[in-house]
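Thread: Modeling a multi-component assembly for a lab meeting

Hi all, long-time lurker, first post. My supervisor asked me to bring a structural picture of a complex we are working on to next week's group meeting, and I have zero experience with this. I have the sequence lines for every component (620 residues in total). Could someone generate the structure of the whole assembly? Inputs are pasted exactly as I received them:
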Amino acid sequence: MQIQYKPKRGLLATIFQAEILQGMALTLKRLFSKPITRQYPEEKPQIRTGFRGQHALVRDPKTGKSKCVGCMRCAMVCPSRCIRIRSHKDKEPGSRRVIDDYQIESLRCVYCGYCEEVCPVNAIVLTEFYEYGSYDRRSLYFTMEQLLGNWDRFAAQLDRPVEEYVNPFWRPRGLPEQTLPAPKRLPVSPEWSGEQQVVGRKWRQHHGPEQS
Amino acid sequence: MTPPLKQTLEIPVADGEAERYSLRMGPQHPATHGVLRVDLELDGETIIECKPQVGYLHRGFEKLAENRTYSQALILTDRLDYIAAMANNVGYCLAVEKLLAISVPLRAQYIRTLVCEMSRLCSHLLWLATHALDIGAMTVFLYCFREREILLDLFEELCGARLTFSYPRIGGVRQDVTSYFIDELQRFLDIFPSRIAEYETLIDTNRIWLKRTVGVGVVSGDQALALGLTGACLRGSGVDYDLRKHQPYDAYDQVEFEVPLGSDGDIYARYRCRMEEMHQSVHIIQQCIDQLPPGPIIGLDAPDLVMPNKVPARIEAGSSTYGTGLIRLIRDRDLYLSGDIYVATEVPKGELGFYFISDGNNRPYRMHIRSPSFIHIGALATIAKGEMLADLIANIGSLDVVLGESDR
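Re: Modeling a multi-component assembly
Sure thing. I ran the full set together rather than chain by chain. Output:
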């Protein structure tokens, strides 16, 4: 497709600067419409569910501790290698792994969300909280207590009960349930779980309603 | 007290008449779109010699990728061309999928095409905004950012990030689209053509814009091919080369679109090409929404994130549905084939190619990125020679370079 350009300008349009006046009229029109600028620190943008912000370790409401089982999947998958986990196992048989410390160096993190996606028990989450800049590096090197505190702070400002909060990376949208480990099979809407998918208008016309 | 230093300034005079001097432009110059340094040799205001210098943003991605698995190296491609990260991600995934012989479900292909075109709109909007600002049109800058904000909000809804998406996955995509996302995107598509008309009203026939762009930075078709230009810079010179059309990947062979071609090869021709591409992108996104098929969003044989050498968990879990034959097939197959491969995709800036050498390991032995920006910066030396200093700014803007991609 050949593009068309270099539009010819008439003599009158040249003399009266018609194209500049048109542009001016457009900008003048914007003067009377609602401003689109957001006055950021006073006016907060609406953050969507699943925004990858500050890290947190989910506090189990039953035990009051972290849900982490120390499987090291998150530390293994992390592309920037910013997760450090220390754990030990008691001598007596049948005892569970105990997490001593769970550290995240948030300055190295690239916020890809792989950790929360591979976690089999939904213990780690990137919350929707994003304003945590600091003047020193020390406070951005999260220890386990800080990470649990991050979750408490996030849960407190949540507008719905914490039990109902589901992060889209815990249970990826559209993945069939049978491919996920049991703790990740959280109750979600049929659109989220992939049972009811958004299908194009033309596809439906072509293939009929019974298949979609 | 020491006596004041006596210093005589030696002004080099060439041919007795004009004043020849050298000028370092950048790397902190706002009009170089990042950290590009250009060493200039000037005769008055005319450029005699132009040497672009790159490397201020070098992070060594090609080396970093050698120590990461294929899934982990995906996040590095976000930081190449950070304006259209989705297109880079898709290009990377396509290359790895071809290397590992993984198939992608149809629905994932359509979603990928859709997000690729959305990121093309993002990139072209930011290009128009900054290019117009460089030349002196301030209003267009603000108008373009208004529409780009809507697109970034949509990306946030889809994958939880506004700039570094890491959304496609080797063998599919990470999250399915929601009806909210599709509805919002449809609303955007309905208003966007009128917004393009607004930009055109502002600058298309503006006499200052025409004076700065028509006949400036002319590259003929043969010259553009010799310099290795791709994308809108090549099509502005009238060469019909678009990988989406001539080497279709994902769902590009399922949708109809046209490749806009210029003829003069000047800045104005490249500007018109990109404006037409925006119209075509809207057209492609509309078709993707209309034809979106149901189905899985990730292939069954896609490698696992954590243990890429093992059979993916989703196959083990779904074995009752898919039968044990598939598991045996994948267990027997080398998950990672050795060999080398080059896969190129059409990103907003031009042709982005990934070259892999694999030795059968789960991480690339060598990854090379053929980035359009690097080659376009190289072409700047030829294009800007003999032109005025002020036109260099217009030329840099028109070649649409991103230093993150050039230096990688």
